[in-house]
Structure formats: C-alpha cells, structure tokens
Amino acid sequence: MKTEEPLIESWRNLLSQYSLVAHELDRALQAEHCLTMSDYEVLDRLIAADGCKARIHDLVGDLHLSQSASSRAVARLEKCGLVQRAMCDTDRRGVFVTATDRGRALHLEARRTQLAVLQKHLA
Question: What DSSP letter does each residue of 45-89 carry, written as one string?
Fold first, then answer.
C-alpha cells in the first residue's frame, strides 16, 4: 500500500493542475471571446486540419469530448457563423466542417488568450 501512495498523489496532483488550468482557460475564453473551452478546442482542431476542413468523425476522434458534446459544439459554432457544414462529395454519409473567415479570425484572437493562460500555469 505504501508503494502506491506516490502514484496516487501524482494522479491527484495531475487532476488538480488540469482542473485549475481548464477552469481558468474556460473562464478567460468565455469572458474575452464568448467561447467555451470545448468550442475553442473544436475550432482549434479544425484550424489545425488540412485546409481548415475536417470530417466530423475525424474531429471527434481527436477531442476529449463525446460524440454528442462534439456535435453540440459544432452546432454552436455553426450558429455563430464560425464554421459551416457540407456533405462529403465522395461519401454521402460523411459531413465536413470548415472554418469560416470569421472562425479563423476569432481563433487567432482566442489563441493569444489560450497561450497566456498556459504560459501562466505551465511554463
């Protein structure tokens, strides 16, 4: 049991650090850009994708969100005009999401906020 204590303490410290950073990042993104951390993560992964375009299925695989939470985030971003959906030309079951010009501009602004929070806590 004693040999497990350092491992458990490391786990708890990791969870505490994640919780602190995630909470502050979520608060800062909402206050400054009206984005939740989940919305930002979807937009960030999409911007990183080839041509700012990705299949929803592929996006979900890269995120820490469930399928339904990812779909809700994409829907919120679409409603705000930050992304747009389109059917896949080669697979009618597939749906692509593309960042709009407005989405790319907001991502650039929000990236500065993300980096400031990460710098404060992780550097």
Answer: HHHHSGGGEEEHHHHHHHSSS-HHHHHHHHHHHHHTTSEEEEE-S
Which residues are 95's β-sheet partners? Answer: 87
Q: At what angle do helices 37-48 and 5-33 cross, to 10 degrees?
A: 90
Distance in angstroms (rounded) separating the CA atoms of residues 42 and 77: 9
Token output for 30: 């909402």
**DSSP annotation of 98:** E
Angle between helices 37-48 and 67-79 (to 10 degrees): 80
Q: How much is the pTM?
A: 0.85
Query: What pLDDT digit, counting tens, does each position of 63-95 carry?
Result: 888 888 888 899 999 999 999 988 776 666 678
Which residue in this structure is represented by tokens 């059917």? 87
